[in-house]
Design goal:
This protein is mainly α. It is elongated, with a radius of gyration of 15 Å. The mean pLDDT is about 85.
């Protein structure tokens, strides 16, 4: 039961937050090209960070796979990706169509930024 709670905390909640961000990203209507590019950069950074988290999870669960790069390095890259995604949020202009998407992206990034250092300390 304890391991299930840890798995939900480490992989379930971030996956849910990223799914909500993707759903709200798809609901964005017509916006300026600049805001669209910033939104895409933020989503790409978020999805890449989540992909790294899932990759580390798959490697941790299966004893047959190994990574050539250490988990600390992957964690640092992921934190930098999340920070880049949050910086695009600060640069973007507030638009009524994009506010919900930006809030979802920001909440997922903040959760991942707080989660990655914990995971790096454990390993």
């Amino acid at each position: 039961m304890f391991w299930l709670l840890i798995a939900v905390f480490i992989w379930g909640i971030p996956l849910c937050l990223v799914s909500i961000a993707c759903w709200r990203y798809q609901q964005v209507g017509s916006i300026t090209k600049r805001d669209l590019i910033l939104l895409r950069v933020a989503m790409f950074s978020l999805l890449l960070s989540e992909g790294i988290l899932l990759l580390v999870g798959v490697v941790a669960v299966s004893n047959t796979l190994t990574l050539r790069v250490g988990p600390q390095t992957l964690g640092l890259v992921s934190v930098l990706l999340c920070a880049a995604s949050l910086i695009t949020l600060l640069v973007a202009k507030r638009n009524a169509d994009t506010v919900r998407a930006w809030k979802a992206i920001a909440s997922a990034n903040i959760y991942l930024i707080l989660l990655w250092p914990l995971l790096m300390l454990v390993h």
